[in-house]
Amino acid sequence: MEENQSWDEFLVPYQQAVEELKIKLKGIRKQFRKENLHTPIEFVTGRVKPVDSILAKAELRNIPLKHLETDMQDIAGLRIMCQFVEDIHEVVRLLRNRNDIKIIEERDYITNKKESGYRSYHVVFEYPVQVIEGEKIILAEVQIRTLSMNFWATIEHSLNYKYNGEFPEDIKLRLKRAAEAVFQLDEEMSQIREEIQEAQHMFSYSKRSSTEE
Ligand code: 0O2
To answer: Domain RelA/SpoT spans what residues (predicted)?
Structure first.
């Protein structure tokens, strides 16, 4: 951010990027549904980080305001919610294949969950935005998670506000237990899905062979 720049001015390309990316990511969902295929994307949200959160994070991480563009990767933030853990990996593959974004970092908090119990897959990428002055490349972050991981993260995030980041030990423990329950739920759902798919496969196979007789 330049010294004489206003927040409104600074945030214009980020707002533009979030709006464009929401449309593009929702477009993936539409295409899957049109083809009558299981869509790996359940829903998409996006936001530009509020100025007070930018300032708080900059102070916490010692990021000078003039380095915001390069050092704060989630001013433009998108979230993709999926039904199953397998869908998260499918979404990551889809993102890697796009040529309108350039991935610069992936953080896999699914395999390596955070100390808090937080699980999600983060992809940081460069995205070109067309502004009046020409093209501006900004950084954006997309967080990809299941519906249940999102449920946990949303509640933990709002409790964080209440406790100002300092959870009492018993709450911390209960949140970790809740995160474990979310993990078990996702596992169970994946297994149920696999069994349904196998049963459908066997059903269509036996139907085919009976009509061929
Ligand atoms: P917001 O906008 O309020 O969500 P790190 O150094 O790893 O702690 P970094 O480098 O910013 O942090 O990257 P990270 O962890 O990949 O991404 C940070 C964002 O991930 C957070 O944004 C949250 O959205 C989410 N996140 C990370 N850890 C947790 C967690 O324990 N609980 C919840 N609910 N969300 C988490 P911000 O900056 O908090 O802002």
So the answer is: 46-167
